[in-house]
Design a protein that fits this description.
Layout (H helix, E strand, L loop, with lengths): L2 H25 L25 H15 L2 H12 L13 H6 L2 H8 L2 H15 L2 E2 L4 E2 L7 E3 L7 H10 L2 H17 L10 E4 L6 E5 L11 H18 L2 H17 L26 H17 L3 H18 L19 E4 L4 E5 L2 H17 L2
Antiparallel strand pairs: 1-2, 3-4, 4-5, 6-7
Helix pairs in contact: 1-13, 2-3, 2-13, 5-6, 6-7, 7-8, 7-9, 9-10, 9-11, 10-11, 11-12, 11-13
The structure holds glycine.
Glycine (GLY) binds next to loops.
Length: about 375
């Protein structure tokens, strides 16, 4: 695709995304769904954990930032306010997901101290999950559990540390990133979903999984969280050791993508077998990695490496805006991006639209479209 074609095609995809989000909030006001069921947003199935509210509100901020439409601004503020109480939520490890896509753009637009305070409180609340023995932020499932996903949330602790000049916060966030690198990121750049620790001694015990194929497999979304998370941490800290991890993840990602540039849900899935355990794509992992690779391309030094990351991201987005993935030619489908996966084992949101897939797809397309204007 030429740059001009891309600008047109990506803009159309973003306009379609606006239509879908407007329809969702008109049909289900103040409802924060996580995944579709048969392409429809109103699910009664379990959440597993309540972590995706910031993605719906975050899309509204993305739409407003691109279009300057005051209606999207009003909707974004309304949906963000519905999340404000979560700044004190100690039951989830997802406060970065919830607040960095909502209160951060809102604060950057206004400079309002109250919004700044919410961001800082969210960072401090997340930091309370720190396990001194083992030196990691515990996942929502158990104190002995570390998730790769938390790499996308730890940036809010670095943010709070920077804004308040709090060394203790910075130290524990740094420790979390090092523990994750040492126990969940493998030498080849792939990642495990979960690590488990001995609570008495802090000793690392084993790599395991909830949403991937196996403890020793390469769950695609976990790798995308790691790639993007370490890139965000590098942006906030300037620490080369974290950029190195993001590049290791990115190199594994780029070298192992299938020919159509959209990942299967787990790099170890036997794709000769049927979905959901075999040949099931996860478009959301592709959207996250594309957005992360666009950032990483701006952070790395050799121009050839930057071009490689950017071209990989654009090739992935080119695939996702085609009708196989974009729902614009699928009548009745209420989501934006088809073929995402939430939790295969629990049979939640498998081969559906998932709210984080929607958000990172919109975020990645917006980065490309806004940069070209
Ligand atoms: N729990 C985060 C994810 O599903 O990726």
């Amino acid at each position: 695709m030429t740059a001009a074609d891309r600008q047109t095609t990506y803009t159309h995809a973003l306009e379609f995304a606006e239509t879908q989000v407007a329809a969702l909030i008109e049909k289900h006001p103040d409802f924060f769904p996580i995944y579709t069921v048969g392409g429809r947003w109103h699910h009664e199935g379990e959440l597993w954990t309540d972590w995706t509210g910031g993605f719906l509100a975050g899309m509204m901020w993305q739409f407003h930032l691109r279009t300057q439409d005051p209606q999207w601004r009003a909707r974004a503020e309304h949906y963000s306010k519905l999340l404000e109480h979560r700044q004190h939520d100690r039951d989830v490890h997802d406060l970065g997901f919830i607040f960095l896509s909502t209160y951060k753009p809102w604060f950057e637009l206004t400079g309002d101290e109250h919004l700044h305070g919410v961001l800082i409180q969210a960072g401090r609340t997340l930091a309370m999950r720190f396990q001194e023995k083992g030196r990691y932020l515990r996942s929502f499932v158990a104190p002995e559990s570390l998730f790769i996903d938390i790499m996308m949330n730890v940036p809010i602790i670095f943010y709070a540390a920077r804004e308040t000049n709090d060394d203790a916060l910075r130290t524990l966030a740094t420790a979390h990133c090092r523990t994750t690198r040492d126990y969940l990121v493998r030498p080849d750049g792939s990642t495990a979903h979960e690590g488990r620790f001995n609570l008495e001694t802090g000793e690392f015990l084993e790599q395991t999984t909830h949403q991937g194929l196996a403890g020793d497999s390469r769950w695609a979304r976990g790798l995308a969280w790691s790639l993007y998370g370490y890139s965000k941490v590098y942006a906030l800290t300037g620490e080369q050791e974290f950029l190195d991890v993001a590049c290791r993840n990115a190199d594994f990602w780029a070298a192992n993508l299938p020919a159509d540039r959209v990942p299967y849900w787990d790099f170890d899935a036997d794709i000769s077998q049927p979905a959901p355990w075999g040949a099931q794509k996860d478009s959301s992992a592709g959207a996250i990695a594309a957005s992360g690779l666009l950032d990483l391309a701006q952070q790395v030094a050799p121009p050839e490496l930057a071009a490689h990351y950017r071209e990989t991201a654009l090739a992935m987005l080119d695939a996702l805006v085609a009708p196989e993935y974009l729902a614009s030619e699928t009548p009745g489908w209420e989501g934006i991006l088809k073929h995402g996966v939430y939790h295969t084992k629990k049979e939640l949101g498998v081969d559906e639209s998932v709210m984080w897939g929607e958000y990172f797809f919109v975020e990645a397309l917006s980065k490309v479209v806004n940069a070209a204007r």
